[in-house]
Amino acid sequence: MTDQPILQLSGIRKEFGPVKVIHGLDLEIAEGEFVVFVGPSGCGKSTLLRLIAGLDDPTGGDIMLEGRRVNTVPASERGLSMVFQSYALYPHMSVRKNLSFGLENMRLPKDQIDARVASAAKLLQIDPLLDRRPGQLSGGQRQRVAIGRAIVREPVIFLFDEPLSNLDAELRLQMRVEISNLHAELGNTMIYVTHDQVEAMTMADRIVVLRAGRIEQVGRPLDLYNRPANRFVAGFIGAPQMNFLRGTTDAGTGSLRLDCGLVRQMAFAEGLTGPVTLGIRPEAIGVSLEGAGDLTVKVQNFEQLGSVTYIYTAFANGETLTVQLPQQIPLRRGQEIGVTLDQRSFHVFGGEGDRALTAVG
Ligand SMILES: Nc1ncnc2c1ncn2[C@@H]1O[C@H](COP(=O)(O)OP(=O)(O)O)[C@@H](O)[C@H]1O
Ligand SMILES: [Mg+2]
Question: What is the assigned CATH class of domain 242-360?
Answer without folding.
Answer: mainly beta
